[in-house]
Every structure is written in structure tokens, then in C-alpha cells.
Amino acid sequence: MKARLLLKQRLPLAEHEFAEMLVWEVPEAVRGSDHSFKYSLAYVVRGRCVVRFDNESGKGDHCHIGDKEYAVDFVGLDELLECFWQRVEAMRGERHEDPDD
């Protein structure tokens, strides 16, 4: 089996914000992960990635929130996407409450 693209999408969320999602089904697990998906889910504001979920080879499933990195328990794609969108909405809410934004 060759890698198969499952999702490639870039969604504008506001004038200077977008979400970009890329998910592949791969023939064998990426080093550090125990499932058959390779993914990168990003939320970008004014050219800066403020939320990213990915499973870079060797690092396994993790997310970046601002400058911090956290491990992610991969349960399934639907749950991963839901977690990503929850984090994006939380970040957007925080940004819109900031009077300096």
C-alpha cells in the first residue's frame, strides 16, 4: 500500500487567520506513533503558527501551543480533529478577548 491522502484543506477563519489540515494514511506507523496516519493540523494567525498537532517522525503524537509542546494520546482521527478544533476555538476566544488585538 502506498500512502493515501485523506485530507488536505486550508480554511480561512478570519482576515489574518486560517487552519490547514493534512492527513495521510501510511503503510506503516510513523516512528514514535502506533497508528497508520501521518498528520499535520495547524492554526495560523498573522503568519505565525499558534497551534499545531502533528506526529513528526521520532517525536510521536504531540501538539504545539504557542512555544510549548505537549504529548497527545491518539485515539482516532475524529477525536484528534475534535481536539484540534477545540484548541483552535479556545485560542480564538482568548484572542478576541484581548483588548490589544
Write up this protein.
This protein is α+β, with helices and mostly antiparallel strands and 101 residues long. The chain has 1 helix and 6 strands; from the N terminus they run ββββββα. The longest helix is centred in the C-terminal third of the chain and has 21 residues, at 77-97.
Number of helices: 1
Q: What is the string of SSEs from the N terminus onward?
A: EEEEEEH
Helical fraction equals 10-25%
Note the main sheet.
6 strands, antiparallel
Question: Over the alpha carbons, how many angstroms does the gyration radius reach?
Answer: 14 Å
Span between termini:
47 Å
Unreliable stretches (pLDDT < 50, length at least 5) are none
Approximate strand percentage: 35-45%
Number of strands: 6
Compose a concise summary of this entry.
Helices cover 21% and strands 44% of the residues.
Key attributes of the depicted protein:
alpha+beta; six-stranded antiparallel beta sheet; 101 residues
Write the layout of secondary structure elements.
Elements: E1 4-14, E2 17-25, E3 37-45, E4 48-54, E5 62-65, E6 68-71, H1 77-97
Antiparallel strand pairs: 1-2, 2-3, 3-4, 4-5, 5-6
